[in-house]
Structures are given as structure tokens and as C-alpha cells.
């Protein structure tokens, strides 16, 4: 168990998932991936990284990049 995991910054990247945006890269390096329906019935991924996504070789069509700190509610 990584005791410092809750102290590291999380980067959330919203990634387009329409057929024209494929293939995406770097999703395999995300710690958590959410998929949500966006406009027009297409979906987008919210990929959460604790390390820099660019260190993992991430590239692709993105909708937004948001730096945030997540606090665990226990």
C-alpha cells in the first residue's frame, strides 16, 4: 500500500471517444478511467493520472485538462 498516494497531485484529462478521435493513446497508464455520455450521444473518457500523463507517452484528442487535488472521504 502506498501511504503517500493520497498526497500526490492528480491530473484529469477528458479524452474524446468519437470514431474520428480513435485510436487514443496513454489510457492504459491511467489509474482510473470514467466514461460518460457527452453531446450527440458520443462518449468521453475522464482519465485520472497520479504521475504526469506526458511521462507515460500520452497523446491524443482531448477535450479538457484539469489539475486537481482529490481528498478521500472515509
From TrEMBL:
Pfam families: DUF3048. It comes from the Eukaryota. Residues 3-52 form the DUF3048 domain. Gene3D superfamilies: YerB-like. This is DUF3048 domain-containing protein. It comes from Puccinia triticina (isolate 1-1 / race 1 (BBBD)).
Amino acid at each position: 500500500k502506498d501511504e503517500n498516494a493520497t498526497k500526490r497531485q492528480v491530473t484529469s484529462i477528458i479524452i474524446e471517444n468519437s470514431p474520428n478521435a480513435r485510436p487514443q493513446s496513454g489510457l492504459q497508464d491511467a489509474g482510473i478511467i470514467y466514461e460518460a455520455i457527452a453531446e450527440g450521444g458520443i462518449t468521453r473518457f475522464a482519465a485520472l493520472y497520479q504521475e504526469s500523463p506526458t511521462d507515460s507517452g500520452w497523446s491524443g484528442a482531448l477535450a479538457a485538462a484539469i489539475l486537481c487535488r482529490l481528498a478521500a472521504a472515509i
